[in-house]
């Protein structure tokens, strides 16, 4: 029992050299960083779920000012609020400087709105992708860092065994098994990072597609004064109109 208890993480740390300790500390730092990013992104996704319905509330508002107030109330500091604010600022800039001789005043109104919306989407995309490179790097490199620690630990253990001249199983199994723990540490760091990276990437893709659709609607509204109705809604309206016209035509034919 005492021999079994002698081997473990504490024994590995005590008998390891500076290289193994540096690898272990590096894996620990990578794990803390990845879990910080994972938890921060999870909290952001929870906040984003509370913003659902804010876009429809914006379009249901009677005017632009009321719609912006609804966005700031239901989705504060969200990419959707920033996009609407940027578009409104661009439209206001056009109204103020249409007759101006400056470079901004000479630009086409549609181009000014498009650039403003693209700038807002670019900033939102940069914010959504913040930390993703670090998370992907941790997920891809952590197994190799752990494998390096394993190889170095086995080499260090075999050198000590060779120096002592005792190569029995009980002398080899302990140090080699402890060295293999570094590979397990690498996988423990990498697997959550990879899974979280895939989940966050998918969530970002969905949010950016919704943001892009909102930008198209805003561009149409600022350019023409009307939002582009979804295709399904247009088809439903056409079917409703057809059903309303059909009885009138039938009544007219009967009267004839």
From TrEMBL:
UniProt-annotated location(s)? Cell inner membrane; Membrane
Q: What does this protein do?
A: Involved in the TonB-dependent energy-dependent transport of various receptor-bound substrates. Protects ExbD from proteolytic degradation and functionally stabilizes TonB.
Q: Does the keyword section mention Nucleotidyltransferase?
A: no
Q: This chain belongs to which protein, by name? A: Biopolymer transport protein ExbB
On assembly, the entry states: The accessory proteins ExbB and ExbD seem to form a complex with TonB.
Keyword annotations for this protein, in alphabetical order, are: Cell inner membrane, Cell membrane, Membrane, Protein transport, Transmembrane, Transmembrane helix, Transport
List the InterPro entries. Answer: ExbB/TolQ_transport, MotA_ExbB_proton_chnl
* Domain MotA/TolQ/ExbB proton channel, chain residue ranges per copy: 107-211
User: Which residue ranges traverse the bilayer?
Assistant: 18-39, 134-159, 179-200
Q: How does it sit in the membrane?
A: Multi-pass membrane protein
Family per record:
Belongs to the exbB/tolQ family.
GO BP annotation list: protein import
Q: Name one GO cellular component term.
A: plasma membrane
Top-level taxon in the UniProt lineage: Bacteria
